């Protein structure tokens, strides 16, 4: 079921919980600390509350307790209704009356009968995290909550409460919004520093850190971030953090939409990619964009497919940023040759086939092709980036230098993505493989005997043997 994620202001609500079951007591325990007004109604409900340790003298919280059966008047003034009774007729009656009054009603553990559900949740001080699958996958929700609870330390709650208490004073010390957000980002990254401290001490430390934080008209910073070959699961944790903290993201054509979806929602996205027959704003234009954005005091992510230092013209961008004394950091990424080796299960080096691997681009700055003489052959693996258009010249050049025409070749388009396509052939048939399958960029060429070990080829060989054996 689809649902609307909403947090309600607790002190503005009066919750009615009907029932003395363990499920009803669980709801009492869940809502008692929130400060909402709570009425609990059922025969022997006092005994159930006592057994659960939820009486006001146990919790120190107010609770309206009615040791009697439900009546229609109990719905008056209530804003949320929970039903946790064992009797089906009573359940149906309360549900019908609540629906007639158009009240939000939850029949505990029966989402099909409810018009709202209460998500799984946990908190760290003022930080509240809620999860819901609409009742479709409760085990997944439980596992997700458990995973997050493990990685978010309890000290984060104290830090959040302290940050909230001094928020106005921090705003006075760091008036610039971007600088202040960067300060809080750094505070979160160092949450472990504040473990085992009380809130008053943490407040003092936060204010001290704010006073020493650089403020005023300072330049921003730039991160050259590797987006990987396309599968968002291959993005590094640091790259994901950079996307979440960026004010502006300058990205190229090789960055997948799935990766961009992980960016901070209010970040500005600037496309600077090149397309067939369209070079866009060019490298000089890209350099100008990232410099100008950084000089505005913004946190800039220059997002590049694969690894930012491999065939990505990072050197020119680093030079431009350094010329303006802009702080720059490089966040590495998984390159296409690594991701594709994984999806095809081709070991790029192998004791039986290759002791070295060479990475080349299919064209150079001046458009000329490389001298292929020492790049491939027996005992070597060659990975060619941007080699689709140059496939005929690559094939002819390598064969002309003595590389066997029968050398296995893999051509992989959109490697690691959902629309990945894989084709196999030999060095001699490479041009045909590209043209007959209409291979488009981004694509990688893998050339060498290691290609013969690809999982696809191993499966095909096994299937062929099976067919021969059964013929």
What do these coordinates show?
This protein has 471 residues and is an alpha/beta fold. The protein folds into 4 domains: 10-118, Rossmann fold (3-Layer(aba) Sandwich), CATH 3.40.50; 153-212; 221-333, 3-Layer(aba) Sandwich (Cobalt-precorrin-4 Transmethylase, domain 1); 337-458, Tetrapyrrole methylase, C-terminal domain (Methyltransferase, Cobalt-precorrin-4 Transmethylase, Domain 2, 2-Layer Sandwich), CATH 3.30.950.10. 37% of the residues lie in helices and 18% in strands. The protein has helices at residues 22-31, 45-52, 56-59, 88-100, 138-151, 155-165, 167-173, 177-189, 199-212, 237-245, 257-260, 282-295, 314-323, 336-344, 391-400, 430-436, 455-470, and strands at residues 14-18, 37-41, 64-66, 80-83, 105-107, 120-124, 127-131, 221-226, 248-251, 268-271, 299-304, 327-331, 354-361, 379-385, 408-413, 421-426, 443-447. The strands form 4 sheets. It has a 5-stranded parallel sheet with strand order 3-2-1-4-5, with helices on both faces. Strands 10-9-11-8-12 form a 5-stranded parallel sheet, with helices on both faces. The chain has a 5-stranded mixed sheet with strand order 13-14-17-15-16, with helices on both faces. A hairpin with a 7-residue loop joins strand 15 and strand 16.
Features:
Cobalt-precorrin-4 Transmethylase, domain 1; five-stranded parallel sheet; 17 helices; alpha/beta; 4 domains; disordered C terminus; 37% helix; elongated; 471 residues; Rossmann fold
Short description, anyone?
This protein is α/β, with parallel strands linked by helices and 471 residues long. Helix content is 37%, strand content 18%. Residues 465-471 have low confidence and may be disordered.
């Amino acid at each position: 079921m689809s649902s609307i994620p909403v947090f309600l202001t607790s002190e503005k609500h009066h919750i009615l919980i009907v029932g003395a079951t363990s499920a009803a007591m669980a709801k009492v325990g869940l809502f008692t600390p929130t400060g909402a007004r709570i009425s609990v109604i059922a025969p022997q409900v006092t005994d159930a509350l006592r057994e659960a340790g939820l009486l006001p003298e146990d919790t120190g919280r107010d609770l309206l307790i009615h040791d009697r059966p439900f009546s229609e008047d109990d719905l008056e003034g209530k804003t949320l209704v929970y039903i946790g009774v064992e009797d089906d007729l009573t359940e149906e009656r309360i549900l019908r009356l609540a629906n007639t009054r158009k009240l939000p009603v939850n029949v505990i553990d029966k989402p099909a009968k409810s018009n709202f559900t209460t998500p799984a949740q946990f908190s760290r001080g003022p930080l509240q995290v809620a999860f819901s699958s609409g009742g479709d996958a409760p085990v997944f929700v439980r596992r997700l909550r458990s995973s997050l609870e493990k990685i978010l330390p309890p000290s984060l709650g104290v830090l959040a409460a302290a940050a909230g208490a001094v928020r106005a004073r921090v705003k006075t010390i760091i008036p610039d919004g971007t600088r202040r957000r960067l300060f809080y980002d750094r505070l979160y990254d160092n949450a472990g520093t504040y473990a085992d401290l009380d809130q008053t001490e943490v407040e003092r430390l936060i204010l001290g850190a704010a006073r020493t934080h650089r403020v005023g008209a300072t330049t921003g910073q730039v991160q050259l971030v590797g987006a990987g070959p396309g599968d968002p699961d291959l993005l590094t944790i640091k790259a994901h953090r950079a996307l979440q903290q960026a004010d502006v993201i300058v990205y190229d054509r090789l960055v997948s939409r799935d990766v961009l979806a992980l960016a901070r929602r209010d970040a500005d996205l600037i496309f600077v990619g090149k397309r067939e027959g369209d070079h866009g704003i060019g490298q000089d234009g890209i350099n100008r964009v990232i410099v100008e954005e950084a000089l505005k005091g913004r946190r800039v992510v220059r997002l590049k497919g694969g690894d930012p230092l491999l065939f990505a013209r990072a050197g020119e961008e680093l030079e431009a940023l350094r010329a303006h004394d802009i702080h720059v950091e490089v966040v590495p990424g998984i390159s296409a040759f690594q991701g594709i080796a994984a999806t095809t299960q081709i070991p790029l080096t192998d004791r039986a086939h290759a002791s070295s691997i060479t990475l080349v681009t299919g064209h150079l700055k001046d458009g000329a092709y490389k001298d292929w003489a020492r790049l491939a052959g027996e005992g070597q693996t060659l990975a060619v980036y941007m080699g689709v258009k140059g496939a005929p010249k690559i094939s002819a050049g390598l064969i002309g230098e003595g590389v066997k025409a029968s050398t296995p070749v893999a051509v992989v388009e959109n490697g690691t993505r959902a629309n990945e396509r894989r084709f196999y052939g030999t060095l001699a048939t490479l041009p045909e493989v590209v043209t007959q399958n209409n291979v488009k960029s981004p694509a990688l060429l893998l050339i060498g005997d290691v290609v013969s070990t690809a999982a696809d080829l191993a499966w095909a060989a096994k299937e062929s043997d099976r067919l021969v054996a059964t013929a």
